Amino acid sequence: MNDVAALAGVSPITVSRVMNGSGRVDARTRSRVDDAMASLRYAPNREARKLAGRKAVRIGFLYGSRFVGDLGQFLIGLSDQANVESAQVLVERCESADEEAARLAALIAAGVDGIVLTPLADTAQAFAVMAAADVPAVAVDCGPSDRRVGTVGIDDDTAAYQMTRHLLALGHRRIGVITGSPDDVTVARRLAGHRFAMEAMGVARDDALLVTGMSSYRCGLDAADSLLGLANPPTAIFATNDDLAAAAIAAAQRLGLDIPGDLTVTGFGDGMLATTIWPALTTIRHPSAQMARAAVRSLVRNVYRMHRGVERAPEHVRIGFELVRRQSDAAPRVRPQQSWDMAVPAIS
């Protein structure tokens, strides 16, 4: 429209009036605008003009301590795509499971048109709250859900399978696993992918090599101490998120172990932490910004469907992942079996 205005020697507002058939434009000016449009082969996009007239969509984003991936990148992707869609974003954080319903209610009361949701302590309850309010939603990394809720995520099973096959290809057979909460759907899928790879290679399961807990760094320290204190410790540790992997590296280094010479450690996520620790972490790249953009696009489409009175059609989007190899993995070093003293020497 600006190009048409410049060629015709008028303002963009005058071009808009000609396009809308306004009577406030004289015949000579209208003719110049028509000629300029013809010369530039400009035809107004009717659907775009309809979109321009819609009110801004308000999107709620609710997340908690179980968020996996790079939150900063996720928020950037959320904001970028919201700008593309001319949408507004309201963000709420849950500090505990008891707050989830209240935070969702606050977003709904604020008049959001739809909600982007990440894993919560009780995601099923969150789905129920949104269904009762008839608010469209997209769940990121939450796994199968209510049929009225769209999903965005990666193929966690395959990603964990590939990471385990990578460790097996290096020669590791005693692979310790540190997982987050066992009732987390994504954690369960990653564990399933790991086990499938082990079974496919004929490696017997050793339940002593699996430690479950929460997804925090503190839990990762305790879990790694448990694994490294075994009479026959693992030569590699696969953690289901990067916080747990970073904690495993710290716990090993505290014992004087070399990473990756004495112990290989891999993670899942590839957030900022993966390249700020040393050695830098071999991990699965979890494309947080891309997932956020996909969630906003999917949600906005369904909000507009609802506004037109058309039945919603929740989408289930899968985003690609990548195994990123850095300095925290290597072939197992041939050494006699041993256990390590877990006591930390006192500093005099």
Order of helices and strands: HHHHEHEHEHEEHEHEHEHEHEHEE
Total domains: 3
What distance separates the N and C termini? Answer: 76 Å
CATH topology of the largest domain: Rossmann fold
Helix fraction?
Answer: 40-55%
> How big is the Rg?
27 Å
Task: State the total count of DSSP E strands.
Answer: 12
CATH architecture of the largest domain: 3-Layer(aba) Sandwich
Q: How much of the polypeptide forms β-strand, as a percent range?
A: 5-15%
The coarse overall form would be: elongated
Mean pLDDT across the residues is 85
Strand order of the largest sheet: 2-1-3-4-5-11
Structural class determined from secondary elements: alpha/beta
Please, how many helices?
Answer: 13
- Low-confidence stretches are 49-53, 336-348
The major β-sheet equals:
6 strands, parallel
Q: CATH superfamily assignment of the largest domain?
A: Response regulator
- Regarding CATH, which class of the largest domain? Alpha Beta
